[in-house]
Design goal:
The protein is α+β, with helices and mostly antiparallel strands. The chain has a single domain, classed as 2-Layer Sandwich (Alpha-D-Glucose-1,6-Bisphosphate, Chain A, domain 4), CATH 3.30.530.20. It is about 25% helix and about 40% strand. The longest helix is centred in the last third of the chain and has 22 residues. The chain is globular and about 40 Å long.
Length: about 160
Amino acid sequence: MRSLATLHDEYALRGRIDDAAPVTSASAVLIDAPVARVWDVLADLRGWEAWSPDFELRALDAVEPGREFRWSQGGTPLRSRFAVVDPGRELSWTGTFLALYRAVDRMVLADEGGRTRVTVEESLDGPLIRLFYGERRLRAGHEARLAALKVHVERSA
């Protein structure tokens, strides 16, 4: 299992997840809105509670590379640190939960003729992770978040 520092420095900061992790997933959605609008919603973590299923923000100073934030997903507390904050292109972070599990999360935006493709990629590692949080569950969470993002952005456009 790679250290959180390695995941942050050698993976997240370099625009990739840990493909060798026991659990990985990637999902995408096409949103009928320009990249700038989608970015504004994604970069506003304080606003995620209004649209993202089971998301609760617990502490956030700023959405900037190297800054930490605390949140929970479905009641599970997470501690994360932003790696890439590239407006209109990528929002990524590394994080831990239950002090044993490590993740790399990437949200990548791409313009497609005035619409925006958002791709979410994540890698998870930790003891017996596949037994209680496998790829199917991770993908379902990503797809639910992406669907909610699409509805939220398109309704508010």
